[in-house]
Each structure stands twice: as structure tokens, then as C-alpha cells.
Amino acid sequence: MNGSDTSIPVYDAQSAVLAERYDDPALLRIHDPILSLLSDQPAQSLALDIGAGSGRDAAWLSALGYEVVAVEPAAGMRAEAMRRHAEADIRWVDDRLPSLTRVHALGLAFDLIMVSAVWQHIAPSDRQRAFRKLTTLLKPSGLLVISLRRGKAPADRPMFDVSAGELEGLARLYGIEVLRELRSNDQMGREEVSWTHVVLRMPDDGAGALPLIRGIILGAEKSSTYKLALLRAVARVADVAPATARPILGEIDEVEIPLGLVALNWLRMYLPLVRAGLPQAPRNSGPDGLGFVKAGFRTLIDDRLSGIDLRPGASFSGERAVAVASAITDVASTIASMPANFTRFPGSDKRIFGAHRSRAPKVGPSLFLDVTALWQWGSLTVPGHVWRALTRLGAWIEPVLVTEWARLMRSYADRMGTIIAVGVAEAGLVWEEPQRDTQLARAVAIRIRDMGRPVCCIWTGRPVPEAQLDIDHCLPWSAWPCGDLWNLMPSARRINQHQKRDYLPAKAALAAARPYIVDWWKSAWMDDPVLGLRFTREAAAALPLDEEPDVENIFAALEWRRLRLRQDQQVPEWSGVGVPL
């Protein structure tokens, strides 16, 4: 059921009656014509059920072996569905077509999207946008199944006319293959109602941004490393802080990210390169030839700041705060006037990235680089397909970027008659990750124990003696080096080192640990005003959190981040204490 129409109040008011009517398992026979297609999907495929209603189809998909995300905008129907199918493995989202803003913010791609008995509720003027939003959520070779209702509409639920021809036209427009059109009678016995399932498939080259990204990286000889720097700065946002992205509403498929964060990543990349004297343009002008190297940047060089110092969430005071803010402002100006301006679509004057600068923020005695502050420098728009490729395929794109950047610096050095020693260029391009430091979490655990309160292993719920206490990265450091407070949790050493190790907790294992994780977050971080602020800011930057940053919402966002890490990197899972891997 679509959330943009006037039917939502009806579904809310009649939720119990309608859920009872639609939740009949016998009605699943309507999907018989497509059952063979769905059964052929690989294990642990991810399905999206839009307009999930009573939860009947979502539970059916779960029984088929899918991991299911169910979207239902009517609160009453959603509550009924969750009650009726509490045992099914379903994640519920309050969202709606045509925008699906919350689903897109999760950064997931789906093997199957089902839109059952929904399309007739979408106004014809919204359908092109709705179809585009659906296709951008599909994996290559993923299936989109839309059922079309024909027949007289109920008096209290107005509906629009639908046709398979309209969907065929939209499929041609967005390069989606129409596999089948299957007609069936109404399973509720309404003679005046019939249904058509339209099954569509995303081609294998559905990640169409890759040729474009490859062109940016390996295209014609560049007059500087700026285009590579901009692409890598955006890629680092997609990898580490994807929750900062905001979908742009409207017909254009784009997201916007904080320009201040892109500029901060730019600083992190260029500081070691400029310090090492590595050429960034084919002329021997040194740092004076780089437009962003002004007073603020020079102060950072002299101050010996590292990349870790210039991370989201860092704070500065006094002259250093002024220098950091000034350097970000200068970089934002350079990005807007140079690489964002001159990185164009092939054979076109259209810019790929759009830099929208704001007036540089005033800096007081201190500067705290949280997400809110980083938006103050403006925004950078990124095409939706490019953003999705960077979030899903960043682990493969990053090495190509770094290799080409190193090659480019060596070619500039050759023109100047100098030689860059083997490995020096690559060393300058290493992205400094946070150190694997668990000392703060351990100190807080000891403090809690000294106050007479037990510190429990989040995987067993049992108190852990200090000698057997480990601090575990819930989402493993080896797959995603994140030392944020929300990711540091107490664990019994035998569990951490001999069972969980570098595995990703499976969904059931994480769900079983939920009360212990939430209790730890409250006692370790939220009860302390300073650490609590850091905890929520770090969670807001790294997790898909679109609600108040309380521990319950942060845990829900952690579950979504776990799912995405499993999907993007195929990290092996740990099933839980005492369960064989």
C-alpha cells in the first residue's frame, strides 16, 4: 500500500478487519505463477516487500528462505502485521512510495522487490519516480515483481487505472528487462477483479556507474590529482559515514553529502603528500601551486596534525580551531571551482558532482567537527548510481584509485626530471585508520566494577572477572576498522578470542545480545554527559539513524549496519555462543 495516497487513514482505521481478511494463507495462491522464479534465488537472498499490509507475503518470503525487509506506512496495519507474524524473520520499516527515503538511507541492494496490490494506489504522476526508486534498489540480476489490480475499486479506497503497457514503457526507459506477464483471477472470489504479475529483471551490468567511475580514474591525462582526490574523498564518506547522505527529493536520482566532510577527507589525503614533497601537478611549483594551500593548511603542516586528528568528531580549540576551519573553507572553495566543476559526464558539459557552498561558519574558541558542523560549509551532490556503486563496491574501487594516483605522481616527477622511490607514493596515499584502541572502554568497565556494579559479557549476559575481560568490536575490526564507542563492548575472553574472533555476529546472535548491549551503552556512555554526547555523535555519523539517537534506535541502526556489512563484504558470520560456525 502506497503511503502517498489518501488510503492510509482507511487502512489505519480498519487495520484489524483488513488484516484478518488479507492474512489468509490461501490467498498466497496468487503468487503460484512466479513461485519457480523466487525459488531459484540463492540462499540468504534479500527481499523487499513494499506495502506489506498484513505481513502475509513478507512471512511467506521469509519461509522461502529470504531475509525480508517489509515496508508499510500505515501504523495500524504495521502493528497488526508485526503481531501476527512476530516469529517470522522480518525487519519492518515505516516508509512509502514514491520516495522510499528510509529504505534508500539503509544503503542496501535487494535480490527481490515485491510490490503487491500497491501500484493502483500510486498517482500516475508519481509512477515514473516510484519506478526509478525501485530500480535503484535492485542488485544486478535482481527481480522486481509488481502486481496490477484491475476492476472496480472499493468506495472508501480510491484507486487509479493501471496497465502492463505503462510498466513496459518505464522498463524501457530505465533499462530493465521484462521477463514475464502472468494473469490470474482474484483469490478472494471477486469476479470483477483480476490481477497481472509483471516480472522485471535488472541486467547483470546494473551497476552502470562503474564505467563512469572508471573513466574518472583512468581517463585522459590529468592536469592535477584533484579529480582523483574528489572521487576518493566521496568514496571515503560512502565507506565510513554513509549515514550522512541525504536523498534529494524530486525526479533527479541524487544524494547530497556534507561538503565539509568531503573537504575534511581531502585534507587527510593531501597533508602527508604535501609534507613528503610528492608532486600533485605536472609543474615544479610545490605546494604554492595548489590552490587550497593557504594559511590554514600551512598551519596544519607545521602543527604536525595527522589524518586521525582530522576525523569526524574531532574537536579543536584556539588557533588550531581557526586553522582547521580556514583549511576546510579553502578546500571547499577549491573543490567547487576545480574538480567538481570540471569532472563531467562523457561527451557532455554536465557536471557529475555539484558543489553548493555556504558562507564559512564563524569559529569561536572551539570547533567540534560533528556531522551538523560539517554541513555548515555546504553540500556536494552525487548521482545516485555513483553513490550506490561507491557504497557497495568501494572495497574494489579504492585500490584502483590509489594505484592510479601513485602512477600519476610518478609521471609528474618524471616530467620534472626527478624520481620517486619505490613505495614512497603508495605510502603517502595510505589512509590512516584509527588505532585499535580499547583502553577507554576497558577503563570505563573497571570504573563500573569499582562502583559495585557487574560488568557482563554482552554475548552471554554473565559477569566477567577483570582478568578475563576483553573489549570486543561488535562489528569486526578486520572488516570495518571502527573504534566508535557504540562498537566497543565487554566480552568474556574465551568468547572473543576463541569463538567470535573476526566473525560478524549473525542476526540471531545480535538480537540475543540486545538487552546486554543496551544496558552496557547506558551504563558506560549515556550516564556520562561528555561520553554520552560523543557516543550519540559517532553513532549518527556511522549508522543509518534517522530518529532520535537513543539507545533503542541506535541498536536498530546497528542491526541495519550489520546487514549491510554482511551484504557488501560477505563477512563470515558467528551464530552465537556454543553454536557451531
UniProtKB/TrEMBL annotation:
GO function term, MF aspect, one: S-adenosylmethionine-dependent methyltransferase activity
Q: Which Pfam families match?
A: Methyltransf_11
Keyword terms of this UniProt record? Plasmid, Transferase
Q: Does the keyword Repeat apply?
A: no
Q: Where is the signal peptide?
A: none
Keyword Signal among UniProt keywords: no
Q: Which residues form the Methyltransferase type domain?
A: 48-146
This one is known as: Methyltransferase type 11 domain-containing protein
